[in-house]
Amino acid sequence: MLLPLIQRAQEDGVKFALTPIPPDPVASDQRLIKIQPIPAPALIPQRELRPGEQYRFHFDMGQCIGCKCCVVACNEQNGNPPEINWRRVGEIEGGTYPNTRRFHLSLGCNHCLEPSCLIGCPVDAYKKDKTTGIVLHSPETCIGCQYCTWNCSYGVPQYNPERGVVGKCDMCYGRLTDGREPACVTACPQGAIRIEIVNLAEWKQEYEGSANAPGLPSAGDSISTTRISIPEHLPRDTKKADFWRVKPEAPHWPLVIMTVLTQLSVGALAVVWLLQMLGGSARLGLAALAALAVAGLALSASTLHLGRPVHAYRALKMWRRSWLSREILMFSAFSTLASLYAAALWWKPAASPLLGFMTCLFGIAGVESSARIYRVKARPAWNSAHTSSEFFLTGALLGPLFAAGVGVLSGRWLAVCVTAASLQIFNQAAKFLRLTASESFEMQASAQLLSTKLKPHLLLRGALTISGGILLPLAFTGRWANWTAFALAFAGEILGRYLFFVSVVSKNMAASYLTAEKAAA
């Protein structure tokens, strides 16, 4: 009668200790065994944190059955809609038929030692709690710029378009500090998720072997604190179940318009300043005003990307740390100086060139800041000098063409456009070859998108750049030819920036196979 009950309890995960009982002296032939259940390990730490320690998640991959109870519990606890998951469950698989194996990954926030979401945030909406080490996010401070969603290699921060802000797992901070388990820990029927205490100094020496797992990006990007127990005899070829299911990213049209127009404005004002230094023209004031109008349009377009544009001013706060804050600061200074420079040229054409030089200097700093925003570890296709080159070459191509259309540049100076267009084509070709030759999955996937789904867009972009930047300037002269060349080259750069955003494949954790199938359909 007792044995079936013990077997059923063992199937449910209950472990037992078998302790021999000394035989009774009267009946020396007794052989008794005491059976006692072994208490399961505590789901949360039972002691206070000491200096140099913090809380972390421990995930046991061998115990997870992929039921997603943790996902449902997290959403209910935080009031999130079904499509926004602060905890996600992905699938990994490996082996060859018939010896194949599949496992699941359950991941919330890793509460990293060097959180990239915190480092990049322009409004200081993230804090690493000094007591617990938990990375906390303030929705009241957040402006919905979504920069943290690009910076995190795990894709942890999730943007909520209805609220206009980002949100993420905070390890159920209120429950944990009250001595209760986080919702995901409580809901897991297998006990696959627990909260542990980690010694930070020791973890920095051992995280590479304990925080990495198939289907996850490198823990070294931000030093994840999540400890992952991997099952024994994992097939060597184990990888994401959705490994080759890639699709274009969102185009982010406000950023497409903003980046191209700011670079156009900087290029045009640089041409104006150079012409002034070389003798000037009566129409330089008009060209400067036109370039200033373009800059104003660009900065207005940028606010459309924010979930809470009314709080855009907050993005200046973290200029010491965030490239996004620096971009806004540099372009704000550029616009102010450009206004003064345009006014000076309009009323006094012989105005001091020092003001023009400062305008160009801050414009160049703004373009470089823009490029640095995208050069992050989580998006390998962006994280190279090709990004900076593309942004500066856009200004070098469109600026002179715009000035030619206004009527202050012609003749031999249009050779600058031809050179810039040629270099832009070369830069894009070199970038594509780099993506193709890389061993990184994300970079290969970007090359795959550009050579398949996005191939027509890529070829059209090249044709527009060659037509507007090389053929027309060399073959024709005159105002209408200049404006036609500008329109074609501008369309090419807009299309190129669209490809820049949609072709990137970010680092991320494995997704559910069925979710990937639905997304790819």
Rounded to the nearest angstrom, the radius of gyration is: 29 Å
The CATH homology group name of the largest domain: Formate dehydrogenase/DMSO reductase domain
Number of domains: 3
- How would you spell out the order of helices and strands? HEEEHEEHEEHEEHHEHEEHHHHHHHHHH
> Which structural category fits the helices and strands?
alpha+beta
Identify the CATH architecture of the largest domain: Up-down Bundle
**Low-confidence regions:** 8-14, 516-521
**How would a textbook summarize the main sheet?**
3 strands, mixed
Q: Quickly count the helices.
A: 17
> Could you tell me the strand content as a percent range?
5-15%
- Please write the CATH class name of the largest domain: Mainly Alpha
Query: Which overall shape is indicated by the principal axes computed on the Cα atoms?
Result: elongated
Distance between the termini: 54 Å
Specify the helix fraction band.
40-55%
Widest β-sheet, arrangement of strands: 10-3-11
Mean pLDDT: 89
